[in-house]
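Meet our chain:
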Amino acid sequence: MKRLAGKSALITGAARGIGHHFATAYVEEGARVAIAGINGDRAQAAVDELGGQAIAIEMDVTKQESIVAIAPGVVDGEHWDGVDAFFAKFENKQPGQKKREIRANVPFGRMGHPEDLAGMTIFLASKEADYIVVQTYNVGGGQWMS
């Protein structure tokens, strides 16, 4: 039996990037997934790609009445270019310098990838984690331990 059979998940930003990796992993583990995103067409395209029991929901998580979602740790992805540009401007650094600094401080020698986080989210949503409450899990390649 799949670990998330009979469970449902609302995953914001699941049309692409980290959220899409999570949605894919959840569907593969048997969950019903609501793919939420600001672009309804993109969310529907993700649903069409995933198949399974997925639906698309158009929503803007920046609105007060919407769900506020966060992703733990520093994860490499297409969104990083904007973060890198921010640090380049406000810390007077060259583009790419902040990313190199973070990578140098991770014992694994690289920034995390979406698939590095998916396993933890599946575990926390599964029956195996029913007795776990109020915990923080650092999925960061050992960055917070070094």
User: Anything to note?
Assistant: DSSP finds five helices and three strands in the chain.
